[in-house]
Write a structure and sequence with these properties.
The structure is a single chain. The chain is mostly helical and 406 residues long. The chain has 15 helices and seven strands. The strands form three sheets. A three-stranded antiparallel β-sheet has the order 4-6-5. A two-stranded antiparallel sheet has the order 1-2. Strands 3-7 form a two-stranded antiparallel ribbon.
Length: 406
């Protein structure tokens, strides 16, 4: 089979072992696929260009990383929101935060670790993937399933309570992992000579999901892999493209397309779905960046004569959920001045108080957060793929489980 083969195991099940990338025979770049690739390349270039116009771009990148962390973790079943994460980081209302908020915070740390290592000229490699996984799983749900280590037992994918006998998909057995992962690492780097970057990202992501090398956290690491590949090869100077919003909105088709690769070798259909997602997500992120620039200019102009308010606005782009104590730290002022600043910005409709308390109030920079929420809505309603005409019916009736064989 084009995509790999099933191997019968001694205990009676069959596990799938993927063929090395790139697919053979070669990807058929028909007119539609070429157009989608051209569009995606253009949309990525535009996103990278607008990033250069952002004032203090690293502040906005930090928000994008948090935004992606929330969406990617929600695909895996967490309930935490962007506001929960920001409040947790600010220690504003962590006592009432969802228990799974630490999983999202770990995702932020894992992404930042990967970007920092790339900036040190450390290559995107199996070692770095293990390091990222260790950061992701530290001290959270699944943290007892060998963080930072590739699995040594069989796992499977299926609905809640599924077993090897009822699983919808069984990844390679442990004795095949080294070979499959080594071939993937080789492709990520050697494939540069013959496969366009975005196509290579799509192929590598699907292959990683098929190999499923960890006992937990595979989906999140696989989505991080896309952004890290783009940043390593400087297609994006800063990590502003995240596909989780698109994959979450089109989750059923996402799983269908991955399944169709494994069962029918339908790489081209997967790549068309993937490239649509890249374009939709890049365009939505570009619109958000434009909105950030316009909003910042408007708000700064409105308080241009108030140096303390200007300093607070700059701080809100870094940490959009604040308390009076945090405002004191940002501005360098007394508590009464911090309260006065908060009330002034609240009166302008920029800050929204979230507790209802008279004391220990928590404020959100609502117009800024709204830009990110709007991006999610736009991506959910744009770029829907054409009706599915190939591939098996979706069998993932519940959230996927990544359970070791015990």
């Amino acid at each position: 089979m084009r995509s790999g083969r099933y191997l019968a195991q001694p205990t009676g099940y069959s596990a799938f072992v993927p063929a090395p990338l790139p697919p053979r025979p070669d990807i058929d770049f028909d007119g539609e696929l070429r157009t989608l690739l051209s569009n995606a390349d253009r949309d990525i270039a535009r996103l990278d260009a607008i990033a250069a116009l952002l004032p203090n771009p690293d502040l906005f990148v930090a928000m994008y990383v948090r935004h992606e962390a929330v969406l990617s973790s929600q695909i895996e079943g967490t309930q935490s929101t962007l506001e929960d994460v920001l409040a947790f980081e600010a220690d504003a209302s962590s006592a009432g935060a969802p228990k799974d908020v630490e999983e999202v915070v770990n995702y932020v740390r894992a992404m930042n670790h990967g970007l920092r290592r790339l900036a040190e000229d450390f290559p995107l490699s199996l070692r770095l993937i293990r390091e990222i996984h260790a950061e992701l799983m530290q001290g959270v749900r699944g943290g007892g399933k060998s963080p930072g280590e590739f699995r040594r037992s069989q796992n499977w994918i299926g609905g809640h309570g599924s077993t090897l006998a009822t699983a919808s998909f069984i990844p390679p057995p442990p004795n095949e992992l080294d070979s499959a992962l080594g071939a993937l690492e080789t492709f990520i780097h050697d494939g540069k000579r013959e496969v366009p970057l975005l196509v290579r990202c799509g192929l590598a992501h699907a292959q990683f999901e098929t190999i499923h090398p960890f006992l937990d956290g595979n989906g999140r690491v696989g989505r991080l892999l896309i952004t890290l590949m783009l940043c390593e090869e400087k297609a994006l100077v800063r990590p502003l493209l995240y596909l989780s919003v698109y994959l979450k909105a089109h989750r059923a088709e996402y799983y269908d397309r991955l399944t169709a690769i494994r069962t029918q070798g339908h790489w081209e259909q997967w790549l068309k779905f993937f490239l649509r997602g890249v374009s939709v997500t890049a365009r939505a992120a570009t619109a958000t960046a434009h909105g950030i620039v316009a909003m910042r200019e408007e708000h700064r102009a409105a308080v241009s004569r108030n140096a303390k308010a200007l300093k607070l606005l700059d701080g809100l782009f870094r940490q959009p959920v604040v308390t009076a104590n945090r405002i004191m730290e940002i501005v360098g002022c007394t508590h009464p001045t911090a309260v006065k600043l908060a009330r002034d910005l609240e009166g302008r409709g920029w800050l929204a108080e979230s507790t209802g308390y008279e004391r220990n109030r928590v404020y959100r920079y609502q117009p800024y957060l709204d830009l990110f929420h709007r991006e999610v809505i736009e991506a959910q309603h744009a770029g829907a793929a054409k009706p599915r005409t190939t591939g098996p019916a979706r069998r993932h009736k519940t959230k996927r489980s990544e359970m070791p064989h015990v």
